[in-house]
Amino acid sequence: MPAENTNTFPCFVCDTSFMAAYLLNGLCDDEFSDCIKDIEYILENNGQIYVPPLFWYEIENILLYKTQPNKKGFSVITKADAMDILYDLEQLPIYTDLQPDSQIKQRIFDLAETYNLSYYDASYLELSRRYNLPLKTYDQELKAAIINNA
């Protein structure tokens, strides 16, 4: 459930690119590592991570993709690794926002149109704006929208 006053403890909205980098750190060469300090800060300070409902489908799709053999016939992670990662993910203080109502859907659509984002990415931006929280992402288009939105 969202905090009444998010100024009293650390909170942020996190997109799939950011969380995948955290969860797959050490397992993938192409992942970012500065996400670790942000997630650890949340954990150490009883903070909260906010995500839209589609986050769970996106993150599990990434894990599924990483279990599939690449062109060389190797998987980045095993199915057992994916299940361990999902377990770890479920231990994090993640608040999943409710299904969007018609007003939220319209705001997402408008943001997607304004910043040339996918509807998926715009849902993270809308959530961060609605709760007035920073948005953690490694997605370049979403980062540009954040900068242009400031």
Structural notes for this entry:
It is a single chain. By secondary structure, the chain is of the alpha/beta class. The protein has helices at residues 16-23, 35-44, 54-67, 79-90, 102-115, 119-131, 140-149; strands at 11-14, 48-51, 94-96, 135-136. The chain has a four-stranded parallel sheet with strand order 3-2-1-4, sandwiched between helices. It is globular. The model has no long low-confidence stretch (mean pLDDT 88).
Strand order of the largest sheet: 3-2-1-4
Radius of gyration: 16 Å
Tell me, rounded to a whole number, the average pLDDT.
88
Element-by-element helix/strand order: EHHEHHEHHEH
- How large is the share of residues in beta strands? 5-15%
> What's the total count of β strands?
4
Short key terms for the protein model shown above:
150 residues; alpha/beta; 4-stranded parallel beta sheet; 54% helix; globular
Brief summary:
By secondary structure, this protein is an alpha/beta fold. The chain contains 7 helices and 4 strands. Strands 3-2-1-4 form a 4-stranded parallel beta sheet, sandwiched between helices.
SSE topology:
Layout: E1 11-14, H1 16-23, H2 35-44, E2 48-51, H3 54-67, H4 79-90, E3 94-96, H5 102-115, H6 119-131, E4 135-136, H7 140-149
Parallel strand pairs: 1-2, 1-4, 2-3
Helix pairs in contact: 1-3, 3-4, 5-6
